[in-house]
Design brief:
Layout: H1 18-24, E1 29-31, H2 39-53, E2 64-66, H3 85-97, E3 104-107, E4 113-115, H4 118-125, H5 128-133, E5 144-148, H6 151-164, E6 170-173, E7 175-179, H7 183-186, H8 195-200, E8 210-213, E9 218-221, E10 236-242, E11 246-251, E12 262-266, E13 268-271, E14 280-285, E15 288-290, E16 293-295, E17 306-310, H9 320-325, E18 334-337, E19 353-356
Parallel strand pairs: 1-2, 4-18, 5-16, 5-17, 17-18
Antiparallel strand pairs: 3-19, 6-8, 7-14, 9-10, 9-15, 10-11, 11-12, 13-14
């Protein structure tokens, strides 16, 4: 699937490739997570399969089963608008299907663990004892994360947790440049931007220009590097060695077989879209960012046990509350921060409620 989708995109699968041969022999495609996909994804796959199968019918004549939870977060459209386990599961169901609860404040069940400060929330999920134990057994962090709605809050929490970890921080600086499609502008001093300015830019899917890490910190991969080895966008890793050109990291997964999957992450060049800035930003950096905390949107494919949910920042789109509370496989592992004890923010609640945003047309 191309990274930059438009209304005429196709998948990069040559008609004479082994993958194309496999697709021609395919009897059924099961596509999960469809509510999170942009329509251009389906159109790109449809065009590709029609071409590969030489059959001008839907998906080249291959039966396709689409599945997924329509209560979850829909795809992001740029500039777009718009006794207790049983009780908890019922509450999750009502969160999305009770029209009286849509786009209104809903009460949290009393049996859900609540905290009064961000520091307390962090301590519930990543205690100092846990961080020290992780030095010998990194897999204990595999099922833990703090979720919040905004990237700025994620970055702040990650910085706090990095400071709590033992060891010396290492800051890795990116190589940034601006490419101009207009040759006249590229030669004009007025349109030239300094390196300092370029490094201040933080496109949503980019790693930071100044990436600060410590050995044994948690990072998330931001690009598909090698899907066959599981190195896909969204996977979390633990950094074991920090080099100038390569990161050595362990994939975060259950270590029941006693074998760690060690991977080497190189620096790669990432570019913005043409309409993001008056130039194309190219950034050569490790395609990772700290991931003790992550956005609720980014957590959508994660299965966790120990989850901290920071609701101080207001939710802003369909399904975020449902996704946040359904990430944990253990009710006892959910910890919620509704508001800081000293906060005067109007959108935070003092009566044990939080916002629930639902777009009824997205519920099938």
């Amino acid at each position: 699937m191309p990274l930059k989708l438009n209304e005429s995109s196709t998948c990069n699968i040559p008609k004479n490739s082994k993958l194309a041969d496999l697709l021609r022999e395919t009897s059924l495609i099961i596509w999960d997570g469809v509510p999170m996909q942009n329509r251009s994804c389906f159109e790109a796959v449809d065009r590709t399969l029609r071409d590969i199968c030489s059959n001008n019918v839907l998906f080249g004549g291959i039966p396709v089963v689409l599945g997924g939870g329509f209560a979850q977060i829909p795809p992001v459209v740029k500039n777009g608008n718009s006794p207790n386990d049983v009780h908890f599961k019922k509450w999750l169901y009502l969160m999305t299907y009770n029209t009286a609860m849509q786009n209104a404040k809903i009460p949290l069940p009393q049996y859900i663990s609540q905290t009064s400060s961000l520091d307390e929330l962090i301590a519930k999920v990543y205690s100092q004892e846990t961080l020290l134990q992780a030095l010998d057994n990194p897999s204990i962090l595999y099922k833990s994360a703090i979720l919040t709605s905004k990237n700025a809050a994620v970055d702040s929490i990650n910085e706090k947790l990095l400071d709590l970890m033992p060891g010396e921080p290492v800051t890795l600086i990116s190589a940034d440049k601006a490419d101009y499609s207009d040759e006249e502008n590229s030669d004009n001093e007025v349109y030239r931007f300094s390196i300092e300015y370029l490094q201040m830019l933080s496109p949503g899917s980019f790693p930071p220009a100044k990436l600060t890490l410590k050995v044994d910190c948690i990072v998330m991969l931001l690009r598909n590097l090698d899907p066959q080895r599981g190195l896909c966008n969204g996977i979390r890793l633990i950094v074991k060695r920090i080099g100038q050109y390569v990161l050595e990291a362990v994939v975060m997964k259950d270590q029941n077989n006693g074998h760690e999957q060690i991977e080497f992450i190189p620096r790669i060049t990432l570019t913005t879209l043409e309409d993001d800035y008056p130039f194309i930003l190219s950034r050569k950096q490790f395609p990772t960012k700290l991931s003790f905390a992550m956005t609720i949107n980014k957590s959508q494919d994660q299965s966790l046990t120990n989850v901290g949910i920071d609701l101080c920042s207001p939710l802003f789109t369909h399904g975020q509350l449902y996704v946040a509370f359904s990430r944990s496989t253990d009710l006892q592992g959910i910890h919620v921060l509704l508001t800081e004890a000293h906060s005067d923010q109007q959108y935070s609640s003092s009566n044990n409620t939080t916002d629930n945003i639902i777009f009824p047309k997205l519920l099938l």
